[in-house]
Design goal:
single chain, mainly alpha, about 65% helix, elongated
């Protein structure tokens, strides 16, 4: 029993295309979870319908939350800084 039991969990870390895979995954995550909500907010803001101050404040809060999520996605992708995401 010389083979590691969970070798498949670490085998992908030696892949030569690991960085490109991480970049693609980061782009997909940003598009799905940040770009779509922000685009919807831009449409809401550009529409110009007077929905009241409360909805405007809530939409700005939602925009800030989406931007915060984008920052967290990039930081935890392991592509910048100290590698934030999973250990290499």
């Amino acid at each position: 029993m010389d083979a590691p039991v969970f070798g498949w969990e670490t085998a992908h870390r030696g892949d030569a295309r690991r960085r490109s895979h991480k970049l693609i995954q980061c782009a997909v995550d940003l598009g799905a979870f940040c770009a779509v909500p922000l685009a919807a907010l831009v449409v809401y803001w550009v529409d110009g319908a007077d929905s009241g101050a409360l909805l405007l404040v809530l939409s700005v809060a939602e925009g800030l939350a989406a931007l915060g999520l984008a920052v967290q996605i990039v930081l935890h992708s392991g592509l910048v800084g100290g590698g934030g995401g999973r250990s290499e």
